[in-house]
Predict the structure.
Amino acid sequence: MKVVITGHTSGIGKGFYDLYTSRGYEVQGFSRGNGYNLSDPVSVNEVAVKAVQSDVFINNAYSGIAQVELMYKVHELWKDNPNKTMVVVGSRASDFLHPKPQIYATMKAAVDTAAEQLTPFAKYHLLLIKPSWVKTAMLPKRFTESDPIIEVEPLVNFVDFMITNKDFKVVNVTIETKNK
């Protein structure tokens, strides 16, 4: 299986990268660490071209509106192909009003809306996941080990089950933390 992942050097993206390379899949990662800055339209186009050649595209990296742009570019080329899967990593941050404006939450809300708009037109499997707090470098420093936080490995394994299971198709899943 060919897999393309954005943001593959840390957090959720690295979890997918490690899982799929350990299985011997052909995995390509795109992040700032290897020269792909998704705030640059040239990088967005290059990643979209590579994603279209894969079986699974994990649209994970947060970089403003780039996730939405990638969704639309890949959708246009995949819309009639039932053998492809796009996983889009959203966030529960888009589900709440915040005490002050949050660009991150607004951009993740745009991801939600794009997935909602594209799903009816997609023959491929479009899966939007919206995890709550995940133990990654993006986790605010105020969190401690005793706070309810989702670990990367079980999250990735759960999403992998939804990707690889052919008995059903999950379209949208919200993943909440569980109190310890």
The chain has five helices and six strands.
